[in-house]
Amino acid sequence: MHIDILTCLPKLIESPFSDSILKRAQAKGLVTVNIIDLRQYATNKHRTTDDYAFGGGAGMVMMIEPIDNCLTELKSKRTYDDIIYMSPDGQRLSQPLANELSLKKNLILLCGHYKGVDERVREHLITREISIGDYVLSGGELAAAVVADAVVRLIPGVLSDETSALSDSFQDNLIAPPVYTRPAEYKGWKVPDVLLSGHQARIEEWRHDQALERTQKRRPELLQKP
Ligand code: SAH
């Protein structure tokens, strides 16, 4: 998979990709993540990528020209499955959406800033809009990092134990069961006996029961989903 992230503040998004699972995924060659500074595509002498809003009002708007120039160059080199604008009014990110995106080959994530992008970018240049929740961030960079993380960890080989992503919460509409590690007893607080029994079938049954119970208690609406 190849992901291009377009931003006017590249520093804001570099660190999530330079550590842990996202770093290893790149080192293993399973994904390439390219952070692109939109200022490189600015056309004015001050290299600005934003301007005042027509009609007045507070807040700057990201201009269409640098974004279009950048997208044109990228599209001349690759065919993209989706060009995604991070936006609070976009389709809400969910596990099924992350699963769907993890099957794509080439993605662009466009980060807005200030008041967002010129509406013509949304009308003509992008194919999809994603929100990470009903709240407003100051920029799309953290949202893009959230989407990239949720998607990249699903690519086969990224997690060391491939079955691990499948047993996470929201896969199969279930919340993950509790997990424990050593010591088996701490300050008198014990790990459930079954997990120490070595009886794999019983352990799996216990985990499934716990997952069901947790889902019923915390997110009963998930059990109604098809
Ligand atoms: N004026 C806009 C918000 C702009 S926030 C509005 O009211 O809808 C600035 C940028 O942050 C947006 O362009 C978007 O890229 C990003 N952003 C803010 N909240 C987000 C969210 N919940 N999900 C995804 N991106 C978000």
Automatic annotation (TrEMBL):
InterPro entries: Alpha/beta_knot_MTases, tRNA_m1G_MeTrfase_C_sf, tRNA_m1G_MeTrfase_TrmD, tRNA_m1G_MTases_N, tRNA_MeTrfase_TRMD/TRM10. The lineage of its organism: Bacteria, Pseudomonadati, Bacteroidota, Cytophagia, Cytophagales. Residues 1-225 form the tRNA methyltransferase TRMD/TRM10-type domain. GO terms for cellular component: cytosol. GO terms for biological process: tRNA N1-guanine methylation. This is tRNA (guanine-N(1)-)-methyltransferase. It catalyses: guanosine(37) in tRNA + S-adenosyl-L-methionine = N(1)-methylguanosine(37) in tRNA + S-adenosyl-L-homocysteine + H(+). Homodimer. The keyword Chaperone does not apply.
